[in-house]
Write a structure and sequence with these properties.
Length: 106
């Protein structure tokens, strides 16, 4: 379970995917498979969540890693590069962006 704290020493990555409603479920299936069978088993992985908007035109992915290098190593692996090519075919675009938690409320 992701834990969002401003003082956490984790790398946060938020990735947004744009797709059509016709490919949303296929993309969601591909992302779930990637997390269940590969990403979650990589060194430094902490937690992740997938969110789908009600129009099924966007998926937001929130993930946490022990550090930036662990996330980048996963991205550069042969398996993830292959998976990302398949994921790219299912959507208009996707962009992972690294963030620091600035503040939390509630």
């Amino acid at each position: 379970m992701p834990e969002i704290k401003a003082d956490a020493k984790l790398q946060t990555v938020i990735t947004t995917f744009e797709m059509t409603p016709g490919t949303c479920q296929d993309l969601l299936d591909a992302l779930q498979d990637a997390y269940e069978n590969f990403i979650s088993k990589q060194p430094g992985f902490v937690a992740a969540g997938l969110h789908v908007n009600d129009a099924q035109t966007r998926i937001a992915n929130y993930s946490q890693w022990q550090n930036r290098e662990d996330f980048l190593a996963m991205l550069r692996s042969d398996e993830m590069r292959q998976r990302n090519r398949q994921i790219h075919d299912l959507c208009r675009s996707f962009e992972p962006v690294m963030y620091d938690v600035a503040a939390t409320f509630g």
